[in-house]
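Hey,
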Amino acid sequence: MRTISACIEAAGVGLMVLGAVIATVSFLYVGLFTAGWPDAFRRYRANLGRAILLGLELLVAADIIGTVAVTPSFQNLEILGLIVLIRTFLSFSLEVEIEGRWPWRKAAETPTKTDEL
């Protein structure tokens, strides 16, 4: 289980690094050749935030596996709870930053077929 947890952690970090590289290349391409720098910067922040969000999800999964399956003690569970709380707050903050609105406002702001007519 320790190996599985370490592999998931490595995948999470790797995903964040790969996402940062891809977002940077996309930023440079869009900025230089298509939409211009302001639009490129907006897309860059959103793409980078998505990569970080996905990486954080994998890191939380690795922490849960590592704590619950490998060394289940009350102290480790308290630490896990604090780590999950911090990473959940980070994920929530990134989601608000990327989307520009609160997550529960998504459904209310999406136009329906009748609204479009």
